[in-house]
From TrEMBL:
It comes from Hoeflea poritis. It comes from the Bacteria. Belongs to the prokaryotic molybdopterin-containing oxidoreductase family. SMART domains: Molybdop_Fe4S4. This is Molybdopterin oxidoreductase family protein. Keywords: Iron, Iron-sulfur, Metal-binding. Residues 7-65 form the 4Fe-4S Mo/W bis-MGD-type domain.
Length: 700
């Protein structure tokens, strides 16, 4: 793209919604231009490896379609006619309309809505300070992590675990429910190193033969939503065949005897028809992990995005406790290091202003909220003003038709702060241009590793875009917050204060060192002296009424989903949207390799590699329906229907369909995206979105 020689190398972190949070080296060609982006070679987790989409980030930063000027809608919503405004005029108008909405229906009629378009702690989370200071409706973050974190936490009492770099020291790496090749490439870096240097086996547990499964020594292709059944059958074999570490269970688990009794009827013969695996496959997997003490279970998010996802995660994490794998370097179970960083974000998020009486609205149910669903509104007023940062709900949220209907309301005033004219921005009244991560200061923490990484401003943005923090602070001043001085600090001040309050030194030191390794010592990370519950015991038996979680909904929302049906021990429970006569197929909307949610779908190289929206269909299912490769097909359910092209593949269970990637809605034949088909009903017990749990019909 650029022929200039680099002036210097800049150091930062990838800002996107990925557990790897890669430390980056960026070629800086001049004060406004970047060249190649590489993984930091001296960061022991990134280890010089990044995904192809971020390596080509110059294509995104210097994209000709970037938003550069504030815009005001002058035509009908979604029509695409805009008038340029100055920043002052745009912010004045936004504040005027927010204040008018507040005066008419109260402060809760305004909803600041955001998520993970950037994972920077300043630029992502500062919107919460405005929310708290103005008593606007608060957001319950349910859409991504909730089911996974809850399931892992229920066993260990925390969301942390062995050093993920220990995968390289393992004798068996089980990659469960995550397509790491496509979504967190650094997992593969360390797993493949273990295979190369130690002869380790790589096992992949997933619902289709994706790029990660193709690199496995053992691949177990399940029916969607049946991971709990596999985990139970594995533990049945471990107890039955003397592969359970009974001394470890005695000292570190709560009710191993109760679990063993429960699993008596949960053997491979029971699990095989549920999962689609053979009895032999289940037996072999159980003996592999039972006989390989240094087995590292790398547990992802994907398999928890089912209506029984919390049970699936908890059941899978239990296996490492039955085998005692936690005792060994290179062994144990890991999902995220969320709990280890101890960062005090209170100044950034404005928790001092928080009013506990303000309602929370479920971000996954934005369609229901905006269309006036009384239950989704939680007893408060309708939402008539919306401020959106870092997310594209018209494309990524469940129940897309309801989301579109809500955004199309004439009485809804919407401000969207964005980098491109996304589907959500196209439905706004005011669109504000946003900077990209290389154009502002921020700080990041890795979920899939143990690093806090600084993300300093490396280049000047084009004339026009402004950072999230700037917009939040400027709106606060215009909206008459009680203490405007609380909205004056720049990003570097907020970062420095947070580091000092959290015991992580200061910004000057972090600038020099580039990152902080927060990994606890072996004994802490492997729970040698006990798990994070008061009694130190890993919990097999679950008390759902008294359960806690990292992101438990507020008491005003209460338990979510059919929580009364949750079992006391690991199990397979049929809460999934099971196929029926009208909907004989089950659909998962899995990530694509060169998109990240809806990000990168605007770049030419990513779109060229992905081709077009397609539906992966097994050969036998296609033959039965007379569908040929490339045919235009329709899939649907009670929420709607979508047309896209068929791609015939192997490695799918009968009755399972896969659609990879969040393509822009207009890439589909009828202008509606795949999330037309996904539901927004909550995962039990504490919420979450079941993106990979949809029953559908299929027609040629």
């Amino acid at each position: 793209m650029n022929e200039l020689a680099p002036e210097r190398t800049g150091y930062t972190a990838c800002p996107h919604d990925c557990p790897s949070t890669c430390a980056l080296e960026v070629e800086l060609l001049d004060g406004h231009t970047i060249g190649r982006v590489r993984g930091a070679r001296d960061n022991s987790y990134t280890a010089g490896v990044i995904c192809a989409k971020v390596a080509r980030y110059a294509e995104r930063v210097h994209h000709p379609d970037r938003l550069l000027k504030p815009l005001r809608r002058v035509g009908a919503k979604g029509e695409g006619r805009w008038q340029e405004l100055s920043w002052d005029d745009a912010l004045d108008l936004a504040a005027e309309r927010f204040l008018a909405a507040e005066q008419r229906l109260g402060s809760e009629t305004v909803w600041p809505y955001y998520y993970a378009g950037t994972m920077g702690l300043v630029q992502r989370d500062s919107i919460n300070k405005l929310c708290h200071a103005k008593d606007y409706s608060r957001q319950f973050d349910s859409i991504c992590t909730n089911a996974a974190w809850t399931g892992f936490f229920l066993g260990t009492g925390t969301v942390a675990g062995p050093d993920p770099r220990e995968m390289a020291k393992s004798d068996c790496v089980v990659i469960w429910g995550t397509n790491a090749v496509s979504t967190q490439v650094n997992v593969m870096t360390h797993a493949i190193r273990a295979r190369r240097e130690r002869g380790a086996k790589i096992v992949v547990v997933d619902i289709y033969d994706n790029p990660t499964a193709k690199q496995a020594d053992v691949k177990l292709i399940l029916k969607p939503g049946t991971d709990g059944a596999l985990a139970c059958a594995v533990m049945h074999v471990l107890f039955r065949d003397g592969l359970a570490d009974r001394d470890y269970l005695q000292s570190h688990a709560d009710d191993a005897a109760g679990l063993e009794k429960h699993l008596k009827s949960r053997g491979p013969d029971w699990a095989a028809p549920i999962t689609g695996l053979s009895v032999a496959e289940i037996e072999a997997f159980a003996h592999l992990v039972g006989g390989t003490k240094r087995t590292f279970f790398r547990l992802g998010y994907g398999f928890t995005r089912q209506r029984n996802g919390v049970i699936n995660m908890h059941a899978a994490s239990c296996i490492a406790t039955v085998t005692g794998a936690w005792k060994y370097e290179g062994g144990g179970a890991f999902h995220s290091n969320h709990a280890i960083f101890g960062l005090d974000k209170s100044e950034i998020t404005g928790t001092a202003f928080s009013n506990p009486g303000i309602r929370h609205l479920d971000q996954s149910q934005i369609g229901r909220v905006l269309t006036g669903d009384a239950a989704a509104l939680r007893g408060g007023p309708e939402v008539t003003a919306l401020f959106v940062q870092n997310t594209n709900p018209v494309n990524v949220a469940p129940e897309q038709r309801k989301v579109m209907e809500g955004f199309a309301r004439q009485d809804l005033f919407t401000v969207v702060h964005e980098q491109f004219m996304t589907e959500t921005a196209a439905m706004a009244d005011i669109v504000l241009p946003a900077t990209m991560f290389l154009e502002h200061d921020d700080i990041y923490r890795g979920g899939g590793n143990q690093f806090i990484v600084l993300g300093p401003k490396l280049i000047e943005p084009p004339e026009g875009p402004r950072p999230n923090l700037f917009v939040v602070n400027e709106l606060a001043r215009r909206l008459g917050v009680p203490d405007p001085s609380e909205f004056e600090a720049e990003a570097d001040t907020l970062i420095n204060n947070m580091l000092q309050r959290s015991g992580h030194g200061d910004l000057a030191t972090l600038k020099e060192n580039r990152w902080i390794d927060c990994q606890p010592d072996f004994e802490t990370a492997h729970f040698v002296h006990g798990f994070a519950w008061p009694d130190g015991k890993f919990r097999f038996r679950l008390d759902w009424q008294g359960a806690n979680a990292p992101n438990r909904p507020p008491d005003s929302m209460g338990p979510q989903g059919p929580h009364d049906r949750l079992p006391p021990f690991p199990d397979h429970i049929d809460l999934i949207e099971a196929a029926d006569d009208r909907h004989p197929f089950r659909l998962a909307t899995s990530p694509a390799r060169t998109f990240l949610n809806s990000t990168f779908s605007e770049t030419e190289s990513s779109r060229k590699r992905e081709g077009r929206p397609e539906l992966m269909i097994g050969h036998d299912d296609a033959l039965a329906l007379g569908i040929a490769d490339g045919d235009l097909v329709t899939i649907g359910n009670d929420r709607g229907s979508v047309r896209l092209h068929a791609r015939l593949v192997g490695g799918l269970r009968a009755g399972v369909l896969i659609s990879e990637g969040l393509w822009p809605n207009d890439a589909f034949v009828d202008g509606e995206g795949i999330n037309v088909l996904t539901g927004a009903d909550s995962i039990a017990p504490f919420g979450g979105a079941a993106f990979h749990d949809n029953r559908v019909w299929l027609r040629r």
